[in-house]
Amino acid sequence: MTSRFLQQQTNQYCLNNMGNMGDSGDTWRIFRILAEFVEGFDTLSSLGCPSVSIFGSARPPEDHEDYKLARSIAARLSEHGYGIITGGGPGIMEAANRGAAMWTASPLASILTCPLNSTQTPM
C-alpha cells in the first residue's frame, strides 16, 4: 500500500512540476528554452567589456574569509575594466556585487530562481 501511494505521489509531483510529457505544449518546450538562451546571450554580448561570472554559496556571512576574498577579487577585476556578473543572491554573490560596486556603478546581477534560497540582495 505504501509503495503504491509513493508512486502515485511521485507521478503527481512530476505532472505538476514538469508537465505531462505527452502534452503537445511540451513539443515546443525546447524552443522556449532556446529562446531564453538567445535572449541571455544577446544581453551579455551588449555589455561592452570583458566580464567574469562569480557564483558561490549564499551562506557565508560578511565576516567569512570566502566572502572577503570574493569581494576583493571582484573589486580588483572591476578596477581593471572587467564586468562582474553574479546571481544576485546573498553570500559570495553579494560580496562580488559589493566589490564591483567599489569601481563601477552597476555590477550585473542575474536573478535566478533557486528553490532553497529565493532572497535577493539590495546590491
TrEMBL record:
It comes from the Bacteria. One of its GO terms (cellular component) is cytosol. PANTHER family: CYTOKININ RIBOSIDE 5'-MONOPHOSPHATE PHOSPHORIBOHYDROLASE (PTHR43393), LYSINE DECARBOXYLASE-LIKE PROTEIN (PTHR43393:SF3). This is TIGR00730 family protein. It comes from Candidatus Electrothrix communis.
